[in-house]
Amino acid sequence: MSKLVVAGARARMLTYLVALWKLFKHPQTPRLAKWTAIAVVAYAASPIDLIPDFVPVLGMLDDIVIVPLGIALVVRLTPKPLWEACLHEAEQSAQKLPRLWMGAVGIALVWVALLALIAWLVFF
């Protein structure tokens, strides 16, 4: 893949994430779509990944698979006119995503829970 294609795909992904952020803040967004949107944005903007990038293949696959699947789920949970309005607004703005440290905390808690489960299974 050329660098231009990768840059275009990354820019489009950022546009979708900004649209999810706008969707989360929109008062007419259904509750399930709102919480799913903030979970996807928090995961994407978090400095900590569920599967670290240094893990061969799987480290990159989580970014390639989890985030687009989350976006697709939010799009299905959202009324089409509302999603199109938020996406159009995101395309027109130069807004950046905020750093969501709560997303990092959530991912860290998942890792702690997994390590605790493994320790419990090994020692008990």
Helices and strands, with pairings:
Layout: H1 3-25, H2 31-45, H3 58-77, H4 80-92, H5 101-123
Helix pairs in contact: 1-2, 1-4, 2-3, 2-5
Task: Report what the structure shows.
- By secondary structure, the chain is mainly α.
- It has one domain.
- It is built from five helices and no strands.
- α1 crosses α2.
- The longest helix has 23 residues.
- The model has no long low-confidence stretch (mean pLDDT 81).
Approximate strand percentage: under 5%
Largest sheet: none
Which shape, going by the Cα principal axes?
globular
| Low-pLDDT sequence parts | none
Distance between the termini: 49 Å
Number of domains: 1
Helix content estimate: over 70%
The helix tally amounts to 5
- Write the H/E string, N to C: HHHHH
What gyration radius follows from the Cα positions, in whole Å? 16 Å
Helix-strand category: mainly alpha
How many beta-strand runs? Answer: 0
Mean pLDDT, as a whole number?
A: 81
